[in-house]
Design brief:
149 residues; 38% strand
């Protein structure tokens, strides 16, 4: 049984986070995007999920006034279905709350049933659509909100 921990993302995690990102998304973020988030974006807050010393997932959000806007949540595929996505999400919500967030929002693809179920189970509610948000996939985004963190 692996030992899991969650901690703040560090610059040295970017290589492994990129591996997770490339496995999880058909249009992954670039190294430059993650470097910008870690080094320069004062609104950005990222966590990594570590299994036996290796980063196997990550999640991030921007805190804008009192709203946390989720940017990414991703796990290596071999860790799907183990409750680790929920663990990562809960830690992200707690971090946002401690930092002063009153609510959290995110966009998710309608075809991403696993993510939609994860967010719905935690209390996120569908509140709108962003047409063609995932243009490269020709897919809209469902906007979800979690109020009263």
């Amino acid at each position: 049984m692996a030992e899991f921990s969650i901690r703040r993302m560090l610059p040295g995690d970017i290589d492994t986070v990129l591996t997770v990102e490339r496995q999880a998304f058909s249009t992954p973020w670039s190294r430059a995007a993650f470097e910008e988030e870690v080094y320069n974006n004062e609104l950005a807050h990222y966590l990594v999920l570590v299994a036996d010393g290796q980063v196997v997932g990550y999640a991030g959000f921007w805190l804008i006034v009192d709203e946390a806007h989720v940017t990414n949540v991703a796990l290596m595929s071999e860790y799907h279905g183990c409750g680790l996505g929920s663990l990562l999400l809960e830690n992200m919500i707690l971090t946002a709350k401690v930092l002063g967030a009153a609510s959290m929002t995110l966009e998710v693809r309608p075809s991403n049933a696993a993510a939609r179920n994860l967010y719905s189970r935690r209390g996120f509610v569908e509140r709108g659509i962003r047409p063609n948000y995932y243009a490269e996939l020709n897919e809209d985004a469902i906007i979800m909100w979690l109020d009263n963190l």
